[in-house]
Amino acid sequence: MIATPYLLYLGHSNDEIGIKTSRGLAVFRPDICVGEFRHDDCGLTLNLPRMDFAAAYAAGARTLVLGIANAGGKLGEDLVQDALAAMEAGLDIASGLHQRLKDEPRLVEAAVRLGRALHDVRDPRPDIPVGNGKKRAGKRLLTVGTDCSVGKMYTTLCLARALAARGVPADFRATGQTGILIAGDGVPLDAVVADFISGAIEQISPDRHDAGWDLIEGQGSLFHPSFAGVSTGLLHGAQPDALVLCHDPLRRSMRGLPHYTPPGLADCLEANLRTARLTNPDVRVVGIALNTSAMDEADAIALCARTAQEFDLPCSDPYRMGVEAILDRLLESDAATAATATETV
């Protein structure tokens, strides 16, 4: 188990998307975040108390979360030096970067010498099976996207919390490092060998018999040349009964690929439905989630209204506006499906 509370690392970052792990923790688990660590040239903040490592430890922090993403997910020299200083101050280290903490000898030596723990969140468990596509009991919703980093995790967490608030059993199933740190469990899907991706999702979302929902965090996009394989395996393993499409309306090129433009919503909806039908022919779309964080409120509301009308689907910014309309459609569709099943029997 990763010891809490956390000190969230921003380092030298100036890329908003690049600090999404730290920001996600600050937004959804503020109860276990005591502060942020950033250098003077960092132009970003989570609006948490700025602390050095010693002050954070004195305030109760027990783990420094390296909640940033850089090109290739590498442990740069600055990161290594900061992690070493944090361990000297008494903190364990948790990282979701592709380069493992355990593969950096200086960190391993310091951890052994100081009695600190190194947590590589992107290490998948060793017992993942190959997917089999067999129908599982229970109900599942999967968020999908037109691109990476368009709000799939935020949308999934908002839906899970809103369902629980209505008294509907609901569990967030994390598939990325940020979600795993928030939920305390999950699978780092982009670190799973390709043949086992669908099996990993079957494993974290097994049969359930309580009339509740598994809310499965989406990854990547079927239209992103770098990550479409992960998205495909996720769709097959999830066997989703319902999809919510996530989109950043201001995105002009695919994340990290300026030579690719994002797909249209209609094309993306159709492609995800077609792919999902391999393991669940009855899958349906229940809403569209727009990331309007960079838009003013009036424009955001107007865009959601136009999108809802165009696609005859509820549309909102889940974090900014809530997910009630999407939940209404989900539960209405669920009730209609149950009624049809009863009539058939």
Describe the 3D structure.
With 345 residues, the protein is α/β, with parallel strands linked by helices. It folds into two domains: 6-120, NAD(P)-binding Rossmann-like Domain (Rossmann fold, 3-Layer(aba) Sandwich); 139-344, Rossmann fold, CATH 3.40.50. 37% of the residues lie in helices and 15% in strands. It has helices spanning 20-28, 53-58, 77-88, 105-114, 152-165, 177-183, 197-204, 228-238, 265-276, 297-311, 318-321, 324-344; strands spanning 6-11, 33-38, 63-66, 92-95, 118-120, 139-145, 170-173, 213-216, 242-247, 284-290, 315-316. The strands form two sheets. It has a six-stranded parallel beta sheet, sandwiched between helices. The longest helix has 21 residues, at 324-344. The mean pLDDT is 94. This is N-acetyltransferase DgcN. Residues 130-327 form the D-glutamate N-acetyltransferase-like C-terminal domain. Residues 51-124 form the D-glutamate N-acetyltransferase-like N-terminal domain. InterPro entries: DgcN-like, DgcN-like_C, DgcN-like_N, P-loop_NTPase.
